[in-house]
Amino acid sequence: MIARLIVRLVALLALAYLVLPLVVIVGASLTTTSYLAFPPESLTLHWYRVMLDDPSYVAAFTTSTLLALAATAVGIVLAVPASLAIARFEFPGRAALSAMLLSPLVLPYVVLGAALLQYGAAIGLVRSFAALLVGHVIIVMPFVLRSILPLLTPEQRALEEASADLGARPVTTFFLVVLPQIRSGIVAGGLLAFISSWINVELSIFNTTSELNTIPVKMFNYVQYTIDPTIAAVSAITIVVAAITIILIDLLIGLDMLSEPRQP
Predict the structure, then answer these.
(1) At what angle do helices 55-88 and 129-148 cross, to 10 degrees?
(2) What pLDDT is attached to residue 257?
């Protein structure tokens, strides 16, 4: 009994430690002072209005949202067949292919960004949404791939073979047998991919312009010259967006699906 209480106390303290910085950010965004202050002297939404009245912030939010959604969608579309090929088939270079697709997880994003900028300049694909999308797909696809591969166990292969023996076509087998087995991996990987794309600065900064900017790069550039509660308001909105995303996933799919084991 005492051990259980200690574990709960430690868990609550750890949770408070993680949540406290978020509370400070939200509180600082509501202050009436022209500088960051916590606790706020009094409450106001002035800095949110300042942010919304700035077209560059609205454009940056729009760009980041569209970019993260597009990169996640393309990453899922590419990662699903790639994971099936790696897990289900034997072919020369399979290990090398798997290592190459997962390599963005360990390579510094600055190195990837510089390499993509140099290669993109050679083919005329720079400083555009397409250039940003290519880079973001490269860095988010491994999250989806890494989440799906452990779910494609050899035991589940028997279900696919049974489906084929019963006369189901490969497409039918995929949607009725394979997809339900890897759905939790797609959701988990997609969530990680979206967040990774949304918060990325190192790779994005190589292909952004004054007109085409993502919100993390916008914030990075802003704090180099000015620090006021506007930056806290922007950060607070990103926190709310992340929280709403998680709540919607829990309501529509269920967070338990991300860790629920699949039985063959």
Answers:
(1) 40
(2) 54
